C-alpha cells in the first residue's frame, strides 16, 4: 500500500426552493435543498476592462472528476449527485464505520489510523488540506471559486491503471475508458447546473472548445471550463520492456477521439515512462515508490545520466526502499543512483514526436509538466521550429529554466497552489519575465489530485484573512464558507476544498509582495485566452524541401541492409535518415525545383550531428553563398533563421563533427521564414 501513497503523488435533493437572491443572473432560480451555501454576495464581474480585456483568475490544473478514475474508489465523494448533497458527499464504503479500513487515507497523512467517515452534514474530519482521498470539488465549492474571481478552469481528466489495479474498485482499469467516463460526467455536471438556472446553456459552468467561445463565456461573467487529459498511458501508449504497446494509428485514433470529446490540452506522459516520453522524477521516498510502480507497470526502472545543461529533473532520492519493495519479484532490487545524475535518460520518443505533431495539427495545447528535461527540451525544439505557441506549465512540474522559452513562444505558466508565501516566492522568480512579455499568471490547484494543499496559518498570522472580504474586483463579498453544519475558515482549516480558493488569493494579497501577484493573477484569463487563440490560428509551415530531389557528398554504405540515402531526409518519415561517411567535410543538399524565398532551415539531427556547419544557398547548384553558420551546434533540432532570400538549392555543409561518426539527419525542413 505504500506504493499507492507515492503513485497518487501522481442533483437535486428533497426538493427545489427559491434561491436567496432569485432574480439576479448569477443566482439559480432553484437550488437543491438541502445544499451547501456559497457564502458570497454581489454580482460577479462581467464584460471587459477599459482596454477591452477580460479579467479573472485561471485554475490551470484541476481534477473535477477524478473520483470516477482509478477504479472509482480512490477519491471518495462526488462532484454532484442527482440524489443531493448527502449522496454526493459521503465516504467510500470501506471507510465505514470509523475509518479503520481507509488504508490509502492513512498512508497519505489525512488521519492517524481512523477518521469519522461522515461527510454531510457534519464534516468532522474531511475534506481537509491534508486529506488526499476525499472530494474537494463539490459543485457548490467550485461555484464559490467562480464567484470569487475565477474565470477559467482546466479540468484534467485523470487516472492511472496500476493504481486502479491495487485499490478497491467498482469498474475496470482501462485508462481510456476512465477518460471517457470523466468527460461524460463533466458534461452531465454542466447539464445539472443548467437545470438550476432554467435550462440548457443558462448556467455559470460552461465547457468550451475554442478561445472565442471561452472569451464570450468570460465576458458574461461565467466560468469557462477547458477539458484536458493527464494520464500515464494515453491511447494505450505504455511500454513493456522498452517495447511500445501502441502505433501511430492508435495515436491518430486517440487524438481524434479526445478532440471530439472537447479535450484541448494534454500531457504526453505522467509519473511513468511510457511509449511517448520519459518523465520528470518524483523525489525522496515517494520517488523510490513511484519507481517501483514504474517497474511493476513497464518492467523497467528509471535510468539516469548527468544533465548536459542547466536544467535538471527532480532528484529521485537515495533513501532506503519502502516496505512495498517486497512486491518486486524475487531477486529484483531498486537501483541506486548517483547524486550527480539528475536527468532521465529517456526523452521524447519518435512516437512521442508523432503525437506532439498530431496535437499541433489539431490545435491542441501541450502540457510540459511531468516531462523529463530531455523530453521537454526536445518538445520545445519541435514547437520552436514551428513557432507553435500552445505550450503550458500548469502546476510547477517544469524546470523554471525553461520559462523564457515558454513565454517567448507565447505559452502560459501557472505555479502550484503552495502556501501564500511559497506561491508569492515562486511567482517572484518569473516576475521580470512576465513584465518583459506582458503576460499574466495562473495557478494550478490540483484539487482531487492527491498532492496536498496549504495548511492553516492561524488567526494571528500577519497574512490571516479577515472575514468578510471583497474579491479582487470589488464586486463580491465573501464570508466564511458554510457546508451543512461545518463553517470553513482558511486561517484555521487551510485550503481544504475548492471553495476556499478565493480566501487563499486574499491571503496572497495580504502577504508581502502579494498585491503585485494578485494583479498578475487577475490578468491570467486574458493571457490564457491569448495563448489559446494563437494556438488555434497557427498554420503549420510548408516544407519547400518535402519530396524534392536530394543529393550528398557521401552516403554511409557499410551496412548493405540499411538505406541512408539523401532523399530520406525529406521523405516525411522521421524514422528514416541520411548518413554520411565518417569525415568532417561533408554536405547534403536539396533542389527546390525553382527559385523560392528561403529564410528558415530546420535540421533534425540523429546522434551523429555537426558541431560546426553552414547553411548555403545557390541559384544554379554551382555557386554557393553562406546564409547562416555556427561552430556551436548541439544536436537535436536546430533552426537556422536568416533574412529571406531567393534560392533554388539549399545545402547543409558540415565543417566539424561533434562525434566520431559522420553527419546524420532525420529530417530537413526549408521554409520561407
Automatic annotation (TrEMBL):
Keywords recorded for this protein, A-Z: Signal
SUPFAM superfamilies in UniProt: Galactose-binding domain-like, Metallo-dependent hydrolases
Protein name: Coagulation factor 5/8 type domain-containing protein
Highest classification ranks of the organism: Bacteria, Bacillati, Actinomycetota, Actinomycetes, Kitasatosporales
InterPro entries the record matches: FA58C, Galactose-bd-like_sf, Metal_Hydrolase
Positions of region (Disordered): 22-49
PROSITE patterns reported for this sequence: FA58C_3
Native organism: Streptomyces laurentii
Leader peptide range in chain numbering: 1-19
Record carries keyword Signal: yes
Residue ranges of every copy of the F5/8 type C domain listed in the record: 537-673
